[in-house]
Amino acid sequence: MAQIVTIGEILVEIMATRIGQSFTEPGLFMGPYPSGAPAIFIDQAGRMGAGAAIAACVGDDEFATLNIERLRRSGVDTRFVRRVAGAATGSAFVTYRADGSRDFVFNIAHSAAGLLDATDLAPDLFAGCRFFHVMGSSLINPGLAQAARCGVELARAAGARISFDPNIRKELLKLPEVEATIRAILGQTDILLPSDADLEYLCPGQDADTAARSLLAAGRECLLLKRGALGSVYYDREQRIGTPAFLSEEVDPTGAGDCFGGTFVASLALGIPLPRALELANAAGALAVRKKGPMEGNATLAELEAFLATDPPRRQEVP
Ligand code: ATP
Ligand code: MG
């Protein structure tokens, strides 16, 4: 029985080896690495020992094997991952710009990842579920959007809370229905895990505190804003807690937010008190960026505890 359930894309990621490298000319790329935002999230939740499961579709290829074996090693229940004969596992190519931003070429919607639909949500997926997590980056076609909406209903019926990371990607907003589904899931969200860019998309022109307050006014439990190298800010109706980031050499930022979210939700599932959960999530994000590969920097609870026990240096500014 999994306390934490997610759905969505399992991918391989293949990344540029040089900052400034472009997709418009040949260059060296590294990979395949196991990836996909919900996969990174659930891998981390599994490593935390919280009991985790994912429903997803993969191809009948070795990219699928790479991912499934990896998730199993992390303690994730992969019985709800469907291998689709004749389909290829999804992929994402990424390049890094000098300003820290990234460009992607996704093959998701027309890969096996795009074939997940509500019929993949077997009733026993939600037996014992306490948190159902949705990634905005998964809502790329009507089948996946329907699966997310259906998952929210089944999870609610099982008494679970809904966590949502909007994870807006400009490449995905061009797809039909994405915006409408993001708004629909937002309306059902208890625990919202946006980045600054997500807040700007959800509440254009508002500063972060104002946007967070207005998103909380909708009655949700809490909002945890991810601010990259600055750290994170937690909001609920009573309090605002800024947690400065740990100093970390950023080798590869991809997946830090998903790892951070997986740590936070798993900490709640494990009954870890809020101040410690925030420290653990920040520690997980700081460790995640130190390694190349979207989930290569994921860590167990014991590894995070050991990191925090060294009293690692952190930024002076509180976000
Ligand atoms: P993603 O690109 O995966 O969607 P995100 O925007 O959702 O990322 P980030 O804010 O980049 O998430 O990272 C999540 C958390 O990880 C941050 O709130 C912070 O605690 C930690 N973190 C990220 N980058 C760094 C860094 N360079 N140094 C230290 N900690 C970091
Ligand atoms: Mg993110």
Please, could you describe this protein's structure?
The protein has 319 residues and is α/β, with parallel strands linked by helices. The protein has a single domain (4-298), classed as Ribokinase (UDP-N-acetylmuramoyl-L-alanine:D-glutamate ligase, 3-Layer(aba) Sandwich). 34% of the residues lie in helices and 22% in strands. It contains ten helices and 14 strands. It has helices at residues 37-47, 62-73, 142-157, 170-173, 178-186, 196-202, 208-217, 256-269, 274-288, 301-309; strands at residues 4-7, 11-16, 29-35, 52-59, 76-77, 81-84, 90-96, 102-107, 131-135, 161-165, 191-192, 222-226, 231-235, 240-244. The strands form two sheets. Strands 1, 4, 5, 6, 9, 10, 11, 12, 13 and 14 form a ten-stranded mixed β-sheet that branches. Strands 3-2-7-8 form a four-stranded mixed β-sheet. Strand 9 (131-135), helix 3 (142-157) and strand 10 (161-165) form a beta-alpha-beta unit. Helix 1 (37-47) crosses helix 8 (256-269), helix 8 (256-269) runs antiparallel to helix 9 and helix 9 (274-288) packs across helix 10. The longest helix is centred in the middle third of the chain and has 16 residues, at 142-157. It is globular. The mean pLDDT is 96. The structure holds adenosine-5'-triphosphate and magnesium ion. The site of adenosine-5'-triphosphate (ATP) has 23 residues, from strand 13, helix 8 and helix 9.
